[in-house]
Amino acid sequence: MKYAVLKALVAKLSKETKINRISRVADSCLKVEFSREETYFFDLTRGHNSISKSEKTAQKEYKAPFDTSLSKCFSKCAVEKIELLESDKIIRIYTAVRLGYKEQKASLCLELTGKSANAVVLDDGGFILSALRYETSGVRDLRIGQKYAPPPPPPFAFSH
Fold first, then answer.
1. 37-53, pLDDT tens digit by residue?
2. Which terminal residue of the chain has fewer beta carbons within 10 Å of its beta carbon, N or C?
3. Which residues lie closer than 8 Å to 150 by C-beta, 6 or more apart?
4. Which residues does residue 107 pair with via DSSP β-bridges, in sequence order?
């Protein structure tokens, strides 16, 4: 996926104010439903990342801890900000859910970086609540409770 395409998509999505639901519909595919008309499928298969508006596979229901986190943090929530990190192909969606008298903030990092494609749910302090794939390598540590560290940037700069 080209960086310029991601940049244009993030500019379009930045106008959205609400997320109805984010769920996993296949082993490595997330469905982000802003409204009935604006639904996107983020395929995070390692090495073959893509974003589409149409569903390619039959939907499956998952009940893993990652899916519970998605449901808890990203159902009927307000979108505060959507950004594309300058150093790499990482989309970060900041949200807030109002629960009575308190507000729960969270963010979702969609790493569309080829081999290390991943989705990570973070709290408002930047600590990992859940991830599609956990990683404990010499490069970075993706575990629950750890501070989020993005994958190492590519050895080149993206042209804008």
1. 889 999 998 888 889 88
2. C
3. 85, 87, 88, 90, 109, 111, 140
4. 94, 122
